[in-house]
Amino acid sequence: MSRKIPVWIPPRGKYGSTIYEDYSPKLKRIVRSYSSLERDHFVLVETAPQIIDFCEQCERIQGVVNGELVESIIDYWLLYADGTEVYREIKYSADLQPSSKKFGKALRQISAQKEYCSRNSYNHEVFTDENIRDKRLLITNLRFLIPFGRDERRCKEAEKLVLKELMKFEQLSIYKLYKNINYNEESLKYAVYYLLYKRRLQADLDNQPLGPRTEVRLCQNQE
Known about the structure:
Elements: E1 20-24, E2 29-33, H1 36-46, E3 51-65, E4 68-80, E5 85-91, H2 103-119, E6 123-128, H3 129-132, H4 136-145, H5 156-166, E7 172-173, H6 174-180, H7 185-197, E8 201-203, E9 215-218
Helix pairs in contact: 5-7
């Protein structure tokens, strides 16, 4: 269970055009994203092994900007495995350009958040589409893996067989794994994708669509 819960969940149709809902195996609950950019950010956070806890729409804050009190809700709180906590705001880079109609509001929000975090000795950062969507194919592949992260469908025996087989080879295609191991193919498929989600297996997810021809290998800490 996350240390935090969302402070604001707007009703459908009242905020923007779409609310995206995705199940998080890491949090064991539904995570709501209020833009496609926030949803892509969720994919990266959910699948990052160094992030052990997070919360969207995590904190309602008040900050002083040019002598005025500004309220804002910070998009994300992140907890890293080393104990570091970070508050993160998600913005489209176009909205941070002075020519944008949203620039003034975005600047006030970020300034208020930074003032609040500085006053309370919290880490704060801003991520944009330039950070988040740097590798679009990676996001697509990771989004595919997330449903396989649910523990209730795990087949530990299949996982052991996959890991044992990969100890014999530097790397092997998922298709070859199915052929080499005498076991239920659906269980093997779930095992491979679960192990990729958990980063116990590696694959070139940045540059190739994930599928039967994908070459997988053990992570170094699995060897």
